[in-house]
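Next comes this protein:
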Amino acid sequence: MKKVKHIAIEGNIGSGKTTTAKALAAHLGAHLYLESFEDNPHLEKFYKSETINPLKMEAHFLMERYFQIAEEMEKGAGLTISDYCFEKCLVFSEVNLDGNNKTIYQGLWQVLTDYLPQPDVIVYLAMEVPQLVKNIRKRGREMEMGLTASYLRLLQDSYGKQLSVGENSNSDLIIMDGSMLLGLSNKEIAEKLVVELEGRGWVLVDK
């Protein structure tokens, strides 16, 4: 049996990462931290297909995620749940950057990741693109209304590359069908995750 200290919930835009992370943290009495994506001054313009420098947008995310994870891990708050992991930077840079920008960015990511502890477990919420589109429309964030199915498919492919083929050798990857969580209460969502985690031999601890 393995004691788990950090569980990261991952998935495409609209897959329910934040809802799931909140439900699991509340159920387990765990420390929770969430990504503050709204703070990125370039994101809304990007979603609206306005002219921006995508490297600036991704670099902002890179440093914000790095410092947030480093700060949270230093707290030693016991069992911790997050709604992203640092590999998310690679997923989006693969789609949003090209050429030298991508090479430079991913090289910087590699340097920074060596200074961060990896999650014990990454739970990836797999979901079909049409359902992602429905979820995005339903929650109604104005900046996301322009997201296309084709863009979500590119992200889906990038997640598959980064998470499903062994890029996270230091983390246990659990792939769940996120559509099975739709319509469930927070308690039911958390209970399903606990079953998955314990079935993989993880002991959930809060100290």
Q: What stands out?
A: The chain has one domain: 2-204. The two ends are 16 Å apart (CA to CA). The first strand starts at residue 2 and ends at 4. The chain has a mean pLDDT of 89.
